[in-house]
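Is it possible to get an amino acid sequence alongside its tokenized fold?
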Amino acid sequence: MARPDPFSIPRRPMARGPAVFDVSHRGTAAPGASLFAGERLDPSALHGLLDAAEVMIEGATYGDRFQGTAFFTLELAAVPEAADAAPRLAAALRRDPRARQAIEDHCRRALARLLKAEMPAALEAFPLARAEGTTVRVDVELDAPVVGVRSVAGR
């Protein structure tokens, strides 16, 4: 007995949920840029790196709030001494308040773009950074009120 063609089997429609999902990638960081000025993290280099990062956001709106996670992948291959810079950057992202603010700012803009809403004024972000070779991965738990949501992907 021959097996049926899986594409010809009638299927029930999938249930649709309130989940939202977005992936964006803007390119690579400027080659040769140094992330640190002495022992301190250079804010402009960090912003450039975050602008070039691959960002993925998943989550859902619950009433007037968005809850989810943003994942940043920061590739440091173009940075001098990337193998040493990655653990330093991960540590700085965990402890430097300016770095945390830069991550929150990028999360706000990404949420506004994803939800087609105003940028959330209040955002609770809890970043966790880790180095993997010349890559730094930043996971940010998000909880933010959303105002003026016009449409949400996946609905």
The helical segments are 43-52, 82-95, 97-115. The CA atoms of residues 29 and 80 lie 12 Å apart. Strands lie at 19-25, 36-37, 40-41, 54-62, 65-75, 124-132, 135-145. Confidence is low (pLDDT under 50) at residues 19-23, 150-155.
